[in-house]
Bifunctional oligoribonuclease/PAP phosphatase NrnA
Amino acid sequence: MRTSARARPAGAPSRFDDADLSAAAALLEDASSVVILAHVNPDADALGSALALGLALSRNGCTVQVAFAEPAEIPESLAGLAGAELVVPADDVDPTPGLLVTVDVNSRARLGRLGALVDTTPRTLVVDHHASNTRFGSDHVVDVTAESTTVLIAALLDRMGLPIDTDIAENLYAGLATDTVGFRHSTGAGHRLAGRLLDVGVSPDELMRPITDTHPEGWLGMLAAVLGRAEVVTASTGTRVVWTWITTEDAAGLRSEELDSVIDIVRTTKGTQVAAVFKQAGPAHWQVSLRSLPGTDVSAVATVLGGGGHVRAAGYSCDGTIGQARERLLAALSG
C-alpha cells in the first residue's frame, strides 16, 4: 500500500517564482489530456520528472502520456522507476493533446522528432532548470537555482495540492540525487526535500543501486581502454583539461549508461579544471560530455559549440576527427 506525504496547501509559498508556479498549476489543473516529453536519451532527472508529474496527474483524473524520441525503450537503468506504464512509443504519441509539457529540456532540438508537437499543441509548458534554456514554448517554469527539474515538479505538485506518495517520491528522489551527484551540489532546501521524500518511504540504496552503481562485466574492459588513453592538456588560458574518447568499438555491447559513467571517473583527475569525454556516435560524429570545477563555466563553452547545460555539467555534439574535435574544444575554452 502506498504511503503519501501530506500535500502542502495549494498556493503555499515556494522559493521559486510564485506567478510562474501558479500559472503552470492552473494550466495543469484545467487540462483533461497531457503529453509529457523528456529529452532524447532521458536521464533520471528527465524521466523521473515526467513520471512523477504523470503519476500525480493521472491519479487526479487526467489522461497522460509520457514519451521521448529516442531510444525506443526506457533505458535499462531507469526501468524500475514507478509509472513506466505511462510511457508510450514516440510513434503513438497523441499529436494534438490538450497540453504539452516538456521536462528537463533546454531547447526544442533536445526533443528530437517529437519537437513538432510544439507546433500542433495550443500550449506548451516548459519545466526546466538549465541556464541554457531557450524559452521555447508558451509557458515556463524555468529556474536555474533548482538543483534538478524534479525539485520544480515537487514545487508544482505542492502548488496544486496533490499528494506525493512513495511512487512519486522515488521518481523525484532519483532526479534530485543524480543531478546533485549524490547531494554534493545541493542546497539545504534540496536536502530538506530529500528528507521529506525519505519520510514517504524512499529507500535510497534500493532505488539508486540500479541507476548509478550497477554495470556489466564488459564495462571494465571499456574503462581500461578509455582511461588508458586519457590525457591532460592545457588551453591557452591556462585551463588544464583531462580528456579521453570512446570509440564505437569500445562501446560495442554496452548501454549508454555505461558510457555516460566515464566522465564521473575522468573528472576526478587532480590538478585539472575541466574534464571532457568524446563518445563516438558515427564515423566522424561525437557526443561530448563536459564537467568542471568551480570557476569554469562549461555551459558557456558548450553553448558556443552548439550545446548547453549547467555551469559545471554540460554537453554538445560535433563532427570531424577526434583530433579536430579536441582542438575545437580547446579553442572554445581559450575564447
